[in-house]
Amino acid sequence: xxxxxxxxxxxxxxxxxxxxxxxxxxxxxxxxxxxxxxxxxxxxxxxxxxxxxxxxxxxxxxxxxxxxxxxxxxxxxxxxxxxxxxxxxxxxxxxxxxxxxxxxxxxxxxxxxxxxxxxxxxxxxxxxxxxxxxxxxxxxxxxx
Amino acid sequence: xxxxxxxxxxxxxxxxxxxxxxxxxxxxxxxxxxxxxxxxxxxxxxxxxxxxxxxxxxxxxxxxxxxxxxxxxxxxxxxxxxxxxxxxxxxxxxxxxxxxxxxxxxxxxxxxxxxxxxxxxxxxxxxxxxxxxxxxxxxxxxxxxxxxxxxxxxxxxxxxxxxxxxxxxxxxxxxxxxxxxxxxxxxxxxxxxxxxxxxxxxxxxxxxxxxxxxxxxxxxxxxxxxxxxxxxxxxxxxxxxxxxxxxxxxxxxxxxxxxxxxxxxxxxxxxxxxxxxxxxxxxxxxxxxxxxxxxxxxxxxxxxxxxxxxxxxxxxxxxxxxxxxxxxxxxxxxxxxxxxxxxxxxxxxxxxxxxxxxxxxxxxxxxxxxxxxxxxxxxxxxxxxxxxxxxxxxxxxxxxxxxxxxxxxxxxxxxxxxxxxxxxxxxxxx
Lengths: 144, 430
Prior knowledge:
The complex is a heterodimer. In chain A, a hairpin with a 2-residue loop joins strand 6 (68-69) and strand 7 (72-73). Helix content of chain A is 22%, strand content 28%. Chain A is of the alpha+beta class. Helix content of chain B is 12%, strand content 41%. Chain B is built from 7 helices and 30 strands. Chain B is globular and about 60 Å long.
């Protein structure tokens, strides 16, 4: 069944382990300077989140994700300035395993920078170089 | 004149050099401390190379001495020294990890277990930041200690900062991205007109505007932003007479001067600017502009505080400019794909990326001619030595070296920079 926005989606991660995800309509509509916007389709957004949960790129109630094809990071959204974004951030706002997400704008928002262990894991898996990891941590632009 | 270079193999993430010790953070999270003096001494194979290698890597301050500057006005003396540098500049000094192990004096996990986003060593303390906040640990500890850097750091603040920069006085500028610009001020002259953000720690908010990185220009802070306008936050001394008859002096925030006004920029396109000491720089398409800043200008006598010097043209930046810095020997511009070093004699050197990290040490006593560049599989330690032979007042690139500084704050050479026995048996070149 096709996904719809603002509706709880139950995702089976493995046998008897599920999680819930909501595709937020706020991050699908342009015009709000405070909201980044997904450009990937609903299926890709959910898949990106599922990978984040499976790979445990999560700290407390926040998770970070990527969309990778043939070892190349894909463009997943943009900010109000129309700058390309390639890192996803997921939030379990009520700490009840109900998540939503948006493209992270690490250059402009400190809270959108992934923690070191997540970035290091991405370097170890070849998704990022050490140099790019350092630039992300220091809020500098880089060709992801 | 080409720079000298030492290349050390390894998977590094950050580095510092302080009082004869080289600190290397491995990407796996360990912090190793090496005896830098012995590393350099091991590279001296010929007696005739000792002077060049010592000044290049151990005592970068020595050749700025005013007495030597007079000596270098004599062409013969100058040529003799240049010849000594020339003899070693074509060599590549490569150090394998196996060889490096011989100089290891301390090894430990990085304090807190998280790789630092940025570090500073100042007054025998390591300051570092990462997503859990700002910390300090005692450093440069005696060799008898289990750890040369304390493994139990003190947490000073929980803000997730982007970069930190110390000045010569006990102040550290703290860049917090969209949280703004802050300062850790451990001096006695606490500001009266800045908001304290931590009740028990002398951390003050200088501005709530975006701060990517910052640096000190005299007692002021140049705040650089990669997404918004950059600015110079100026400070002033205010003195009040106490009941005791003593003068109470405070360093108060004065004003904010945006780079748009300083550089009279009209372009809507964003370009980063940065400043340190007497020079302010702003990148532009195909180069950068330079302002000479004289904090002590007597405007009644017609002296200018901000004097536009020149524009420096480059063929092209290697991708977007992401960071900039200055040392006495020149400017360092970090682009997305390379590091560009514009030397004080206008020579340009490009170091291809990917660059994990680079550092200069303009406020150190002996390593102000160093540039450390961490690449994927090594750290390259460059030594630039052309600046000793230039007129400091006339050069436009790089910080102006002022010998009169030494009258107020004696600048030591590495010969007197330590009370350790590390250098006791050293055979000095003079």
